[in-house]
Design goal:
single chain; about 270 residues; alpha+beta; Immunoglobulin-like; six-stranded mixed beta sheet; BRCT_dom; protein dimerization activity; Chitin biosynthesis protein; BRCT_dom_sf
Length: about 270
């Protein structure tokens, strides 16, 4: 039978079975317990043990203190800032094209000083209509499928591990078809006259930048592009990012019309 002292119980146990991972022991009133065999290295079947059970008050108090400290840290880092509603002046328009607008924000402002928080997702609303989110990273978002030469009101909702935050309204606008300044064009093998015509349009002449490049204007045929000095790399990248490759006649057509022309009639053949 168990014997007791103040804050202590001594229980006699009999080993009934020893396996590789556990030992089965029996109390005097035939209750069965399973104990890791590593705690009973010299026990065999029939061994009688005495187990002393005491209250570890000091260990209990230490663990309670650790748990309360953890709760306090969680509250301070994640729960101390409820949904703060509107974030004033957070968004800026970083870039625009005829059909897209890129908006950006300072990461620290979105996370509101909670250094442990991370951004989980973003909802984008344009004139009250929710748009699919594409090409997003931690500090910018590109809105696509917009109408050329149109003004829009943009609101973003940031969902973070520290709560949900909503921006105030940002007024943005896409470029009109008469505005070439937003157009990122990669020139390839063009004559001096063709380069001068591009510059007169006011486009941005850039190295190939993937889907950030609007169009590639080339003075070469498609066969020449496929077997050129770059071993067809430019054509492969343009195909990968769905960037149209057009002839220099497209530049002349835009210049004569005074507005951007469809590329469909000027694809490089």
């Amino acid at each position: 039978m168990p014997t007791t002292a103040e804050h202590e119980i001594i229980v006699p146990l009999t080993v009934g079975k020893v396996e590789s991972g556990a030992a089965i022991v029996l109390t005097d009133d035939l209750h069965m317990l399973e104990i890791p065999s590593s705690l009973l290295p010299n026990a065999t079947v029939g061994t009688v043990l005495k187990i002393r059970i005491t209250s570890a008050s000091d260990l209990q108090l230490a663990r309670e203190a650790d748990f309360l400290a953890l709760q306090t840290a969680i509250l301070r880092n994640f729960g101390g800032r409820p949904d703060e509603g509107k974030i004033e002046g957070c968004l800026t328009m970083m870039d625009n094209t005829h059909t897209t607008v890129t908006v950006g924000w300072p990461q620290w402002e979105v996370l509101r000083g909670t250094s442990q928080a991370t951004l989980k997702s973003i909802d984008a609303y344009v004139d009250g209509r929710k748009l699919p989110v594409m090409a997003t990273d931690e500090t910018s978002l590109r809105l696509t499928g917009l109408t050329p030469g149109t003004k829009y009101n943009v609101i973003l909702i940031f969902r973070t591990t520290a709560g949900r935050f909503t921006t105030t309204n940002l007024s943005v606008a896409t470029a009109s078809y008469e505005d070439f300044s937003c157009l990122k064009v990669h020139p390839d093998g063009l004559s001096d006259d063709a380069m001068a015509a591009l510059q007169q349009l006011g486009v941005q002449l850039v190295d190939f930048q993937g889907d950030k490049t609007a169009v590639v204007v080339t003075g070469r045929t498609r066969d020449e592009l496929a077997s050129g000095v770059d071993d067809g790399q430019l054509m492969r990248m343009a195909d990968e990012f769905n960037v149209p490759v057009v002839t220099k006649e497209w530049v002349q057509a835009c210049k004569e019309a005074g507005r951007m022309q469809s590329v469909s009639q000027f694809y490089c053949q």
